[in-house]
Amino acid sequence: MRDVMAVILGGGRGTRLYPLTKYRSKPAVPLAGTHRLIDIPISNCLNSDITRIFVLTQFNSASLNRHVSLAYHFDAFRREGFVNILAAEQTDENMQWFQGTADAMRQTLRHYRRFRFKHYLVLSGDHIYRMDYRKLIRAHEESDADVSVAALPVHRDKVPAFGVLSLDDKGWINEFVEKPSDPEVISKLEVGPEFFESQGKDPYEGYCVANMGIYVFDRDVLEEMLLGSSELDFGKEVFPRAVAENRRVHAHLFEGYWEDIGTIKAFYDANLDFVEIVPKFSFYDEYDPIYTHARFLPPSKITRVTADKVTFAQGCIVDDSYLRRSIIGIRSRVGRGSTIIDSVIMGADEYETPEVKANLAPGVPEIGIGHDCHIEGAILDKNARIGHGVRIVAGNGPEQQGDGWMLRDGIVVIEKDAVIPDGTQLIFR
Amino acid sequence: MRDVMAVILGGGRGTRLYPLTKYRSKPAVPLAGTHRLIDIPISNCLNSDITRIFVLTQFNSASLNRHVSLAYHFDAFRREGFVNILAAEQTDENMQWFQGTADAMRQTLRHYRRFRFKHYLVLSGDHIYRMDYRKLIRAHEESDADVSVAALPVHRDKVPAFGVLSLDDKGWINEFVEKPSDPEVISKLEVGPEFFESQGKDPYEGYCVANMGIYVFDRDVLEEMLLGSSELDFGKEVFPRAVAENRRVHAHLFEGYWEDIGTIKAFYDANLDFVEIVPKFSFYDEYDPIYTHARFLPPSKITRVTADKVTFAQGCIVDDSYLRRSIIGIRSRVGRGSTIIDSVIMGADEYETPEVKANLAPGVPEIGIGHDCHIEGAILDKNARIGHGVRIVAGNGPEQQGDGWMLRDGIVVIEKDAVIPDGTQLIFR
Amino acid sequence: MRDVMAVILGGGRGTRLYPLTKYRSKPAVPLAGTHRLIDIPISNCLNSDITRIFVLTQFNSASLNRHVSLAYHFDAFRREGFVNILAAEQTDENMQWFQGTADAMRQTLRHYRRFRFKHYLVLSGDHIYRMDYRKLIRAHEESDADVSVAALPVHRDKVPAFGVLSLDDKGWINEFVEKPSDPEVISKLEVGPEFFESQGKDPYEGYCVANMGIYVFDRDVLEEMLLGSSELDFGKEVFPRAVAENRRVHAHLFEGYWEDIGTIKAFYDANLDFVEIVPKFSFYDEYDPIYTHARFLPPSKITRVTADKVTFAQGCIVDDSYLRRSIIGIRSRVGRGSTIIDSVIMGADEYETPEVKANLAPGVPEIGIGHDCHIEGAILDKNARIGHGVRIVAGNGPEQQGDGWMLRDGIVVIEKDAVIPDGTQLIFR
Amino acid sequence: MRDVMAVILGGGRGTRLYPLTKYRSKPAVPLAGTHRLIDIPISNCLNSDITRIFVLTQFNSASLNRHVSLAYHFDAFRREGFVNILAAEQTDENMQWFQGTADAMRQTLRHYRRFRFKHYLVLSGDHIYRMDYRKLIRAHEESDADVSVAALPVHRDKVPAFGVLSLDDKGWINEFVEKPSDPEVISKLEVGPEFFESQGKDPYEGYCVANMGIYVFDRDVLEEMLLGSSELDFGKEVFPRAVAENRRVHAHLFEGYWEDIGTIKAFYDANLDFVEIVPKFSFYDEYDPIYTHARFLPPSKITRVTADKVTFAQGCIVDDSYLRRSIIGIRSRVGRGSTIIDSVIMGADEYETPEVKANLAPGVPEIGIGHDCHIEGAILDKNARIGHGVRIVAGNGPEQQGDGWMLRDGIVVIEKDAVIPDGTQLIFR
Prior knowledge:
4 copies of one chain form a homotetramer. Chain A contains 11 helices and 30 strands. By secondary structure, chain A is α/β, with parallel strands linked by helices. Chain A has 2 domains: about 270 residues, Spore Coat Polysaccharide Biosynthesis Protein SpsA, Chain A, CATH 3.90.550.10; about 130 residues, Hexapeptide repeat proteins (UDP N-Acetylglucosamine Acyltransferase, domain 1, 3 Solenoid), CATH 2.160.10. In chain A, strands 15, 17, 19, 20, 22, 23, 25, 26, 27, 28 and 30 form an 11-stranded mixed β-sheet that branches. In chain A, strands 1, 4, 5, 6, 8, 9, 10, 11 and 12 form a 9-stranded mixed β-sheet that branches. The longest helix of chain A is centred in the first third of the chain and has 11 residues. The relative contact order of chain A is 0.12. The mean pLDDT of chain A is about 95. Chains in contact: A-B, A-C, A-D, B-C, B-D, C-D. Chains A and B meet through strand 14 and strand 15 of A and strand 14 and strand 15 of B.
């Protein structure tokens, strides 16, 4: 698709995902024990034959740049193919940081404009879904819209969490309502079953359609809108104005799994769904894979283990343990006698060498999970050091935090590089 | 090491490894569920900073070429780095196939001679070991030898299976005896503990030293020896003649694991050793890894499984099974109620799509292992289709074969792409 | 184009291009001072979004393999993208060399058949043209043909050199005549201006249409034809039989430059045309480039030179010379006082280091062209060493040859690596 | 060299090189018609087997990131090899831009510290030289220094432009004087011929040694110095303090060409020296090349041209012109009847398509140089559009500027993307 320029909005500091975003930008948060959030929109682009991709971020941009440059290097025969991180930069004209997603696009416009293309595809870095964007772009072209947006059918009971689109019977958008809660308003936003049928879908009743944060803009329209304003936020200001200004804004229905990984709870639930035999989102598709940094790691070695609904990434060593409904991420080490239940173990960035292990300070455990531990309802971020006999059981306590951990949304999050000494008990049941 | 040109002798038809070599050359045989035999010498070269590597083969060369070109592409900054398969080719001067390993080197000499280097490093494609060749090459240079060969201490009881080197007390080789069996001859070949001590090793008693098939030749010496003869085999003719001609041939002692994967039994044993907690050969070394083709595969998904001494490669799906002391290779599928013991499952080259599965001929199972199977003492080559209720139990019966399988060295080998229908019973206990 | 498998027939020994094919296969012959013949069909494939490409050759296959593996490595996101050389190989079933292009395809069928695709695109390695194969394949699909072939309008005076297609008024082929010379036969083969007009072309009069050697076969059709016969040649046996058997064989008209580089004369003329301001075939197209191995070479350095219709590849050093209507290939060196006219200088594979130069045997010049030379009407193959005061002037003498050179088609060809001593006079005017 | 981490200081806004730095950071300034300044230190690193390279910049960082990610992608077998641009980023701890080179290193320390290494190699992005850093690092290790710095012998007459090192007779540095002008001070800084001789150099007389801005720091020393201060500039504050604090600071003599491209004049002179037959700095070295982004461009096409001391990069089209002592950069176009003397033509980032040319606004020339132009003593930045009949002749006028040009250091600089209409006369002689 030589006509398309993809721009992925990296978003802000990701406070709702804190502490996973303590040392990294939101798109760099690890997913499913092997991937990172940014791999989803990039892979969707690649599988849609879109190979010019910019990612905008200024918060902890270096680690994202590192991941992307290791994982996504294209051959020279794609001509203009690239995935480029655009961090904030100082120029002759501008000495400021990005002030929001729309400001980031405005400041970086000159990097897009040197290319030839017709449409901007504007994406987020924190959604889970599989989409062939070519369909959206073709629908955009065929409807002769200025702006198109992917739209998700959502039952009226759930719409207070979404931005909701008011459609006419051809799918043109005449209003955009952010997180409606008034039942009367919601009733007006309801889309009748006839509309869904006219789009070749099931005749949903009692449904609205929500903005998925996946936009196609005609190049001229977006550049004019950005340059003619000083709006800071893309989803909250630029897109609503396109509707308000009576531009031709069209909704393109999407059916399938789509999830906004906005909170610790949503992140945790999405990860644990991957272990199901038939998960809502599958990484298994040899023709349209979800890519990531391909590593040279050995198979996982499992000794005396009972595992039920567990995914093992590469390079794990698990000894004499019981594992249930958990993600075991790359290079994870689990000591004998341990139990892991309902947990997301992100794994490690590297193996500790024998010399490093020999020189650990007193009381600092090795990276991984020691022996005789019980981990339940937790997220262990990368390189966490869990000592022997540690018990972590999540529960619905109030949000709180300690040295290297946080209880949030009822889930215990062990921070990246955290040290949890032998015998620690974090029980919130 | 800009002074070194590595040449890996792919060997002949690999009859002792048949049927693993039915559709592939010996260096392309899969290892450990993820790798291929050729990955071992190539990785040793890369970890020794040797990046000019030719692999000679004419038997099923295309699949080896494919693996190597996918796995080992070097960046442009290495100048002359490459791994090139040299298949037999017709030229103005020669219209013949390779007649042996020495003939293969002779026929391909012009491809090496265009480079600048001082030493040939001649390797085999079917050994398992980890070696820093730089030490061997430095010892070669320091001793001012014409030829150096890596030498393994072997107890006299085991030497009838080896090529044995007769050494003086400085490590110079004065005789080479292929597979000696006469105890008197062996006694003469014994190397005293003083020699081992002089080399900084333990003072082994009752040991000889064996030829490991890892040679360093001065460039001029080897080219002269090849061009001045019509010998066909490298290890059996060229190297022995170097000794017989009183060239300066030196032995460089190696300590550590080294295994010749020459037979089905040796192949099987070497694979099953990888599942040990402390295996003889480890793929785990983040600084000197054993490389292979890096793939985009999801984590393995394990549901209701008890596993003991098992390695899982990427992309497996195992359901409700009992696994013990086995290798589970990439993309393996194991159906519920199955038991796998003491087996090497090589996995699959690709996932079958739903359409393919829907169109299988009657009686043809899906790729993988069906439900309620019992597999014990077996090697399942790639893409084998094992139906439901299949029982395979190896045993010490005479060599025999059936449709898609072979009993060899007491191990059942299911051939690549074989179809083993529902309910098949192959029990040789 | 995931439905297409491209197979490039490397052809035989290339005797009509000898001595350019003395040390290399025909597709590896250097072109335009920077490229090789094989770069043309591979680039056309890449620019047509076809990325599964096999090249069949057994004659001097190693150098072709080397060029292709250096130049055409695809990123991992193309899934099944590759350019693979298939050299002859021995297998369990077959121990023979390729006996012709059809036999080569038959012997290598198993390598294609493991992929999913619908059409074979069969190409030659020795034609110069720029074609978007997607148009041909779409026409093939729309006409529901079994076989389609690209067809070139050729004036009846020139058809004795071509394979000529007899068409009905829809473009279906009912006969194939190889090199017709009888005027009556040619008259019958003439295609009226109405046909050209019906295809949206100019109403050529007195034209036939010729087979360009660019075929699309339905997968099943080609596999059945190959497996059901023992034909050896593709263009002379398999394709004509498709016509003779009344399969649906369709012609797809092509307009534009197409040249078969079959002889020294054709090769020479095609090269010299590249220096024209508006050449028949242009390498200049940043969107659909002709690729080759990208090298790190410095700009060409030109001192006191007058040049008219000359192309300079990278890394040349030309001193105090007069150059006219010539190709100056990579790393060419031209000494002071020299004149080069109407010549193709292929350049050098590497620079000679000062040490190498210092150690040349007496009378052996450096690589390149010495001082005070006159080169006219010649092709200098790679790494030729032309001494000082050498005069080479081609002419219409009978074919003849000497030490390192050959007069063929009235052109002097200096062989690869040839040594032409100081003062040599090769004048055939 | 696994023990070394290279950090290239991208520097500030590059005001002395303005307007070449108007749209790019200093390390991204084009050099020699094909390269960029940053290619020099990166290539020196690669040729010294140093493959972990960070480049620090915040000013116009995106274009530098783009060049580096296109040009310097390493294969996966180098383990930790990379060239990473570190732009300013916001983190949990820091929301500020870099305040100087030392501050930039301090802010980015956490990106280096995750690696294992012993020495920092700190480099600049705006010097031209060829150095094997391994010698410097070995000398550093052998002398057991805390800090080592490459030192250039400079005649006392020229030292007022340099930072000068005061040495004892073993090369230890006891004082650092920035740009000394007092002859007495200079006399004290003179290093006697005995010292040069003791270092194996010629016995220079009347020479001092200057700081080349190439530093090796022990890891601990540099991290302690950065974290224990709030110094902003590396060369002016951190390094002098190392001397002032009596750390073990050692000078390592370098002989050869080294040039600081700090001004328009220095940049111009360095470029024009490349056209000499024996230039001070050569890009010609097939074993230690200066790398850059390898492009797929055709040979340069030269018709009716007389050229003397000219380098042609790839893809130029030059017609009926006279060129003398000039750099002709990639994709340059020169119209008939033009003369180019003593000029640096940087070329173009892409070819203009026929459609673009057809749609140029009235009075806007095509990219390149029109016909009947005279360009002398000028630098034409990338994509400049020089109309027909333009005359540019530089001279020693006062610094001044106009629309798209600037006279600086007596050289006319045409800005990137500038439009110079037909008939413009810029004559300052």
